[in-house]
Amino acid sequence: MKPPKIQNTSQAQSEMHRDFVVIESEPALSTPNNEDPCIAHIREALRQYQNQSPAHFELRLEVYQIEDATRKVSIKLKPFTWVEVILRGAHVNGRVSVRAECRVQVRKRRSKLNPYVHITVSQSTRKVAIEKFVSSVFPVFDAPLREDTLWYWWQSTGKIFNWVGLPTELKQRIIEFCMHQQPLTQGVYNQKLLHFSQRHSLAYVTRKPAALEIIEQLGDSFQLLYVSHQVRAITLRLCIAGGSGLTHSAGLCIAASSYKDFAESFNRLGDYYQMVEPSSVPKNSQEAALAKCYTRFPRIYPDFNRFATLRHGIRKISLSMDFLPFMRFFEVEIGGFQKHRSRRGLTYHAFDRLPHLNEIVLILPGRPHSGWRHNPYCGGPQLFHDEDPCPRRLHRVIYERIAVLLAWHSKLTVRNFVDGEEEQRFAEQRVEAVHALNFTEDDLHELYADDGGGIELPEGTESVFGSAVVKQEPGAEERFASIEDNFFPPLCYCDEPCTLKLS
Length: 503
Known about the structure:
Number of domains: 3
Largest sheet: 7 strands, antiparallel
Distance between the termini: 96 Å
Strand content: 5-15%
Radius of gyration: 37 Å
Order of helices and strands: HEHHEEEEEEHHHHHHEHHEHEHEHHEEH
Number of helices: 16
Structural class: alpha+beta
Oligomer: single chain
Helix content: 25-40%
């Protein structure tokens, strides 16, 4: 009599011939105290089989010895034991119990150390390994796992898994969860910062640890940087590049409320290489020269991006300054202001050294802490009139330079205008400056590639970034110099004092 076949929804499984018996009414089973010792070997084999993946663990395999069943013991040169058992496991038809006859044999290795157990299941006239038998009787489901399956599988496997064998995409998802799904706390970081400060003598200026912007954005997840080179590289890429599903979706952002804060962040991030690619640190003078070229001109030498520093990863900058630093930063020339520039300070050219800068947010100056009074110790001209100071005209001097110098940048935001009229005026000037550009950034890259690094400009013009400015007639600058020299301090002619509109 042929054993009954199990109906399966899968065509491949229905065509597979299975020589086993599915029982509906189970016989009496032995208690754990009365089981044969070989049942422990079978149970261990099933445990190893189902621990190979969460899908196998979902089968929930069990084995029980049938009470009063035939038990055979061979005492030949290779002793073995025959025992009848009941195997239970999950199936497409529900929970299924299968009756099987197992042959358990302890074999020795050539080294006579660590003997292993060989278990087979009798099927008609042949014997198959228990792993093959179980895979045919209890196939793995192609269905979503239960919520607690992964947890119990992790507990059963000893709370370890093959991290090295995981795909890189899966590692990135795990690290992303650790970085951005957990509460962003600073407890561990602040504690380490306190210990860092205590290790320095009071005679020296206590500074914060390096790459402060990266650490503050990661929070307590900064410890991922110490796991391994690969985990550090993935963590830095997520922190720098950002993403739609991350807490810091814009990537590495720098928010500076003064020129000093911006200069410190800019220079500090430029001192450390990202080291996310092989050979990212120069080891000889030739590589040091290549790294220096990329540090200064990353847009011209993109092929050397393996030497990128943390500064090159900045995606967004939010910058706020006082009146005088803003004028120096954007190299204002009205009223002879070029005489008061800082020779070694950072200017708007710093944006050209950030190849991945996507957004710039500039916050125009507000009311100074000392009020609308002249500070003779700032090293610049008098900005505020003693009786009627006019921050509106000072704002215009600043945002007119911004509209022209940053016309090439597609995503630029300027805030804290005196009123809506000034904001509309800036928008109009920005549109004019964008239309005045002869070449966009993409056009310049194409010209460099096709024309060998440059083009010929018409006679009587001088080149600036993204535009061509016609030289003025001789003596024109001298005629306007006397007018511009009398610009500072600007006198307020507004209908309503603009000092009352700025907080």
